[in-house]
Specification:
With about 550 residues, the chain is of the alpha/beta class. The protein is built from 18 helices and 19 strands. The two termini are about 50 Å apart.
Length: about 550
């Protein structure tokens, strides 16, 4: 279906690829992985003919259709969400408007605007052409997919330009799924999805009839979806069969074998070289010494395995020690108008707990986090911070507290803690601010960059009660590992929401399931919660409604599982 042959690509002195090749077959599901800056997005741009290789070629099988979802900034115009999802041509758009107008008139609606639309048009000619272009099949399919991506029926007729960037990206994702191209090319497709739409999307792709080539930093998504991993690093592409976790095992094993072979060859070379050095000046042994040198020259040299990407290890200042009970919520009532989220809810967090909140969308996870943080005022009940407890809240909107006139480095150094510039630049580097990026003004950063910088600021001056809502968004795998490492050695209390199963598994030692105003506490790690809740999968368990409560259980009690 797709053949990449002998591609090379350089930018100045920096070589991204050198004579690399790749074959993508029908129904392949391939994940592209590698360090930040290794060239994953560049490779996609070459495949899509948006960029040209220095050498080599990209060839598609005749008649193959390709659909592409970029990481950011898909366009939106005057078309409605449904029209965008159907991926209509101008002709199909006109036919749809005519069919709706004819159907409205048939229902007895009198409207001058409708009469203007259908004037001079024939219903049967319009319907025949609409059927010929598959109009009746496209709309139900598009609506089904839009529902799966969490659009409401009332959103379908909204102009796409009225939506936020994330929802526009979802609409474009729906368009690709409706089109069903032979090869689906996706660059971080899960960035703009909530947990329930992510779970739906993951299951939809598992049954997708075409090939998939994607970049993702979500390990669970890769594990559930891909059949091959292409590792891009040091100018080469290496193909592995299996999931992401299987790739990690295979890559480590291959490096061990290469290292053993390299060491053995180096021993042989050292032995031969020692003989040559020792006897080359001795007439009776000179020919033997020369033979040993030639033997070294004839060897096909084994390269030392590339050292593992330098892992970021940094120690950020530890917060002041709090009392054992860090925060308590008693008899909390919270509602948004007539929508009651909590009625008489209790919650307690203790020092050292790292608790993840799970449960279906709209259950009240973010509301609980904001009440604990003090961001939402208590409508009824009491919120009590424990001795020496200091809460700090990280959300997508924390970037608003940044000083827009400063550079990234200046803002990072603007902290009460005394840290060297070198230490701060190390932390910034782990969150993708490298080289001259630290001198960028904050007012020109993207939303994702501001979010990452706000996360750095939080880590440089952490509270002892840390509250985080989706902290891994916009982070690559190396940065997620850096964040995990920092939070593992964090002495305070952590309460967080995340859709990243890997992140949750690495950190949580408590799970609180939130559903219908009820909190169910699982006093163990995420695997303990999975076992107790009999979840069908690690991802699905994040949005499950949980085990049905006993009939007499009180919604205000914090039950233990």
């Amino acid at each position: 279906m797709l053949t990449i042959s002998g591609i090379s690509k350089s930018y100045g002195p920096r070589t991204l690829f050198e004579d690399v090749s790749l074959q993508v077959n029908r129904e392949d599901r391939i994940g592209l992985v590698g360090p930040n800056g290794a060239g994953k997005t560049t490779l996609l741009s070459i495949i899509l003919n948006q960029n040209s290789p220095d050498t080599g070629s990209v060839t598609f099988e005749r008649g193959i259709t390709v659909g592409y979802l970029p990481q950011e900034s898909a366009p939106a115009g005057d078309e409605t969400v449904l029209e965008l999802a159907i991926a209509i041509t101008p002709e199909m758009g006109k036919l749809q408007r005519l069919m709706r107008a004819f159907e409205a008139q048939e229902s007895g609606v009198t409207d001058p605007a409708l009469e203007a639309i259908v004037e001079g048009e024939d219903y049967y000619t319009t319907q025949d052409r609409y059927i010929e272009l598959g109009g009746y099949q496209l709309e139900p399919k598009a609506k089904q997919i839009l529902h799966g991506l969490s659009f409401r029926e009332s959103d379908f007729d909204r102009p796409a330009r009225e939506l936020s960037g994330g929802w526009v990206m979802r609409a474009h994702l729906a368009r690709l799924l409706v089109q069903e191209p032979d090869l689906l090319v996706l660059d971080e497709p899960t960035n703009h999805l909530d947990l329930e739409s992510l779970q739906w999307f993951q299951e939809y792709l598992q049954g997708y009839p075409g090939g998939i080539l994607l970049i993702s930093h979500d390990r669970e998504f890769l594990n559930q979806l891909v059949t091959h991993i292409i590792d891009i690093r040091h100018g080469r592409l290496t193909r592995y069969r299996g999931t992401y976790d299987e790739y990690l095992v295979q890559r480590a094993s291959a490096q061990d074998r290469q290292l053993a072979a390299f060491k053995n060859q180096q021993k042989d070379i050292a032995r031969l070289q020692e003989f040559a050095d020792r006897f080359r000046a001795k007439a009776s042994k000179a020919s033997q010494a020369q033979s040993k040198l030639k033997q070294i020259d004839r060897m096909e040299k084994i390269e030392a395995p590339e050292s593992e990407d330098r892992k970021i290890h940094f120690q950020f200042p530890q917060p002041q020690r709090s009392g054992l009970k860090v925060i308590a919520l008693d008899e909390i009532h919270h509602a948004y108008g007539t929508n009651v989220i909590y009625r008489g809810m209790d919650f307690v967090a203790e020092r050292g707990q790292k608790t993840v909140l799970v449960g279906p969308n709209g259950a009240g996870k973010s509301t609980l986090l904001k009440i604990v943080a003090g961001v939402l005022p208590v409508q009824q009940g009491t919120r009590t911070l424990g001795h020496n407890a200091k809460a700090g809240y990280f959300s997508q909107y924390r970037s608003e507290v940044l000083d827009q006139s400063l550079t990234v480095l200046e803002e990072a150094m603007n902290t009460p803690q005394r840290m060297t510039e070198e230490s701060i630049r190390t932390v910034l580097g782990s969150f993708l601010f490298r080289g001259d990026d630290v001198f960028k003004k904050i007012n020109i950063l993207s939303g994702g960059e501001k979010s990452r910088l706000a996360l750095v600021k939080l880590l440089l001056d952490p509270p002892n009660l840390l509250l985080m809502d989706e902290p891994t968004t916009h982070l690559d795998m190396a940065s997620i590992d850096a964040l995990v490492g920092a939070l593992k050695q964090f002495d305070g209390t952590l309460l967080f929401i995340s859709h990243d199963v890997y992140f949750i598994r690495q950190l949580s030692n408590n799970v609180v399931h939130v559903n219908a105003g009820r909190l169910t506490h699982y006093a163990g790690d995420y695997q303990y919660y999975l076992d107790k809740s009999a979840a069908t999968s690690a991802r699905a368990a994040l949005t499950s409604t949980g085990i049905k409560a006993a009939p007499k259980a009180s919604a205000k009690m914090l039950s233990m599982a």
